[in-house]
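PROTEIN DESIGN WORKSHEET
SECTION A - STRUCTURE
LENGTH: 125
TOKENS:
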């Protein structure tokens, strides 16, 4: 899928940028890939602190040009088990027509319906 996504005409792949959130540890590397035609994506992330899923989880948000930016699309929750690179497959919960930005936030276990926007990572063109 990975190679397919890189060559797909409408797929986007943007590098991650860290914020000053304490969950960002060390150098941030990796990219967010997303194909609006299949609603499939892949996150390659390095630089996020391991989380305790009983306390908090990371959540992906997809900002879509066709939607109100106050209501980004939920891309699901994920955990980082150890330091180093993680690869997380993504399936958008609803249709995303034109992705313009991705954000990774820190949320309560199970994620949020509306994020408090504790943003750890951002990816955009």
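SECTION B - SEQUENCE
RESIDUE ASSIGNMENT:
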């Amino acid at each position: 899928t990975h190679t397919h996504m890189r060559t797909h005409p409408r797929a986007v792949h943007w590098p991650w940028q860290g914020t000053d959130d304490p969950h960002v540890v060390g150098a941030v590397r990796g990219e967010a890939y997303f194909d609006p035609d299949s609603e499939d994506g892949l996150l390659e992330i390095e630089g996020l602190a391991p989380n305790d899923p009983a306390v908090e989880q990371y959540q992906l948000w997809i900002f879509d040009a066709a939607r109100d930016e106050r209501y980004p699309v939920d891309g699901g929750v994920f955990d980082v088990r150890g330091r180093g690179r993680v690869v997380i497959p993504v399936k958008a919960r609803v249709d995303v027509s034109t992705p313009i930005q991705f954000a990774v936030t820190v949320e309560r276990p199970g994620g949020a319906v509306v994020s408090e926007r504790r943003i750890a990572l951002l990816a955009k063109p």
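SECTION C - NOTES
Residues 2-7 form the longest helix (6 residues).
The mean pLDDT is 92.
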